[in-house]
Amino acid sequence: MPNKTITANLMTELNLNQNPNQNLDQHLDQKETFNIWAASLQVRMEDVLNTHMPTAETIPTRLHEAMRYSTLGGGKRVRALLAYAAGEFCGAKLATIDLPAASVELIHAFSLVHDDMPCMDDDDLRRGKPSTHKKYGDAVALLVGDALQSLAFQFISQDKLLKNATQKLQMLHILALASGSRGMAGGQAIDLDSIGIPLTREELEHMHIHKTGALIRAAALLGAYSAESPAEDKLKAIDHFAKSIGLAFQVVDDILDAEADTQTLGKTAGKDARNNKSTYVTILGLSAAKQLAAELHANAMAALSYYGREADLLRQLANFITQRSF
Ligand code: IPE
Ligand code: IPE
Ligand code: MG
Ligand code: MG
Ligand code: MG
Hints:
Layout: H1 4-13, H2 24-27, H3 30-52, H4 61-71, H5 78-90, H6 94-115, E1 125-126, E2 129-130, H7 132-136, H8 138-157, H9 165-179, H10 184-193, H11 201-225, H12 232-259, H13 262-265, H14 271-274, H15 280-284, H16 286-302, H17 312-323
Antiparallel strand pairs: 1-2
The protein binds 3-methylbut-3-enyl trihydrogen diphosphate (2 copies) and magnesium ion (MG) (3 copies).
């Protein structure tokens, strides 16, 4: 089914209508429209990050080079896409979503750099390249994480397009909570504490909600708060949607770790079982993990059931997250 709302608004704002005589609505189905939208925003996010991060020539050059190496030129940018989709849903302009979306990508990149270090998951490969510590050494990798984290908060605090100071403060608060000991870092701590100790299903859910779900939820909320006055009902729907899809994201990551190959993933496959990790696959098995991913996808869709086409990007993103192959 062609999606006129998405196509008309976004194609114009993204400058994709190179030929005004060509009516894309007639030729594209929803999935194709989404793919074009996602591809253009992935490029846009690369540009935003490239422009706003310190150059590799800025002293200290090796640290800045390593920060750029860890952030640019790879990744699906799912968190940024979620921020853009949630922002669009709540009526934000694309440009206003840029830096909040980029801030979440920075925290995410930082979490990956540390996640790969020998003291954590010990993975040599990330996004198809040597992990940051393999290329720059452990000390630089630690500092890359520190510096990317600070830069994320700087991106929001210095954003001149966010006019409402109270809203900006709220966004900083959301990101801080999602990144710290009651969010991503806390989930990572539980992950490491549970090596070789099988978690219960409740404990597993708690860990996943924190290590991955929290930042995904923050991405959606930051996108929503980029709008000048997001409607209360839409904020609630986004929050419900993001909680379900955030958990689904890590369940699918666990499944892919067990099923996909290293080349497709761009990171070492089969790592969870080898590292004695508690995951939905290692604890419940592949089939139960897949069933859970489908249930969480359905929950996420249910959160949007009241809405029409204005929620289609979020729906397509939920499909992408649960059907992805890497
Ligand atoms: C991988 O995240 C780490 C998890 C939190 C599961 P992504 O699969 O989003 O990684 P990139 O950004 O696309 O490389
Ligand atoms: C990563 O979980 C969570 C964070 C980085 C916060 P994983 O350890 O499963 O991620 P991958 O599989 O290495 O990307
Ligand atoms: Mg890990
Ligand atoms: Mg890992
Ligand atoms: Mg994993």
